[in-house]
What does this fold into?
Amino acid sequence: MTQQLPDPTVSAEALHGAVAAIRHEIARVVVGQDAFVDRVLVALLTGNHALIEGVPGLAKTLTVSTLASAIECTFSRIQFTPDLLPADVTGTLIFNPRDGEFSVRRGPIFANVVLADEINRAPAKVQSALLEAMQERQVTIGGDSLPLPKPFLVLATQNPIEQEGTYPLPEAQLDRFMLKILVHYPSREEERAILAQSLDGLVEEIRPVVSVADVAALQVATRRVEVNDRLREYIVRLVEASRDPARYQMASLAPLIEYGASPRAAVFLARGAQAYAFLHGRTYITPDDVKALAPDVFRHRVVITYEAEAQGITAEEIVTRLLEGVGIP
It folds into this structure.
């Protein structure tokens, strides 16, 4: 039975109870991966999209589908392949010979939660069709603009170790994802729990615990989390340092950065910090919230130079050095 939270002014206790209920349902199926689950929930609470990267078998698809099952919403999974067409994602017009008219057949993009599995396996036209829908929150079919449902969340996965037959997303398209989440191997204890779950048949059926209206209330509550002037300045400084590190006494980073984070990064970092604070039961953000989300917001926006690649320095390392070098005002 879902918890009813139709009123955005509902008590903070009920709102946090709804988040706890989602967490509990996911934990019944997904072992560990707490950082990954937190960031998927950040995307949900802010109404933004996330790119999920990790080797096969780390429960990326399972986590997303479990999240959708814990919410009383529509869910679709699109398996991206090289022969996929834009119409396979967005939909198309179908001619009915009986009445001589065209009708719209909506594609799988018309769902509250969309799992774009292995997005980098589809050609550029398909990726563009998906990303346009993500940005505009609507799809144009036969000259008519059709709005996508609310909430609308795209969680795209990609495999970092297999590049043959893939079409990497350009930086301009990567920038539309709020977060790029890296999924890591489980710990030894978690691995044993996964094995026990599989061998002993402990997998349970997930039930919806919140409704679409509840998600809307949670998103409203997230936007109310306070971001004071001091932390707003800190976020701006981090973004600025990614473009001009010498200004913050990090001149050694300048030859390693081709392009810094976009203005969208500042907005996403602030929104993400609000959601992260809300997940931890606070009505205000702290510098630790900003630091926790900064790698996920920056890692796909900071473009490194050939010099950095030659030295084996990654964007992840550069973001870590930026966080170490930029002081809190």
The longest strand covers residues 91-96. The mean pLDDT is 86. The domain at 226-325 is CATH 1.10.8.80 (Helicase, Ruva Protein; domain 3).
